[in-house]
Amino acid sequence: MLKGIIPVTISANLIKNLESDQPLFVSGRLLAIMTLGKDNEGLITRREYLQYFSTLSIETEATLIADGQSGFGNELSAWTTAKELGNAGARYLVLNDQKWPATSTEIAGTLAKKIFMNMVKAAVAGGKDYDLQIIPKLEGITKYGYAELISRIELLLKMGIKQIIVARLNRNELAQLKAEKFFPKIGIELDNMALDLIEVKNFKPTFIVPVESTIASTLSAEQQLYEFYIKENNYEK
């Protein structure tokens, strides 16, 4: 079960240096930024992600959380994604309720509830042989509202899902969610600047996935390196 602050990285070197038993999230969004220079996880195909993830798993032997995005297509694609990433060594698989291809900075659209539940069932079946835990990620609250969010959570729990990620909340919505009886089974992913890590920690969710702050730190480090090269080589900006 996921607990605490979940490190977000695609760096084998960082994973090795952490020397921690804490699972790490291999973010498709971060992979797109670092390999393509674009903040759009939907530009990373299933095969591209699988290849990178497989290498990372072999090189680090860490407990990894795979990013299944929106299943990379239909129910069969979700089944295949779970099977391939489970075989590659993933212990957990995040599957979001966006329409495929998933986007990062904004939500283009969300799957209908029935369709998403079937996607989750397909992923569970695909990862069964590898004891892969599917963690649905609900990030369409701005599209379908709080009541529908709760409905989706309740259905997923009835299906036997152990933990669920909720993303793109504002402070009032998080306060409402905190009062729900199932809150101990909820993790919060920070995909934008609506909430920061410090204030979310005060609500004490079971786990937090700080994607936005990780991206900000990564880009800040790159900017510092850029400024260093400009200074040392006397380049014109």
Automatic annotation (TrEMBL):
InterPro entries: Pyrv/PenolPyrv_kinase-like_dom (IPR015813), Pyrv_kinase-like_dom_sf (IPR040442). One of its GO terms (molecular function) is catalytic activity. It comes from the Bacteria. SUPFAM superfamilies: Phosphoenolpyruvate/pyruvate domain. PANTHER family: CARBOXYVINYL-CARBOXYPHOSPHONATE PHOSPHORYLMUTASE, CHLOROPLASTIC, PHOSPHOENOLPYRUVATE CARBOXYLASE. This is Uncharacterized protein. It comes from Lactobacillus kimbladii. The lineage of its organism: Bacteria, Bacillati, Bacillota, Bacilli, Lactobacillales.
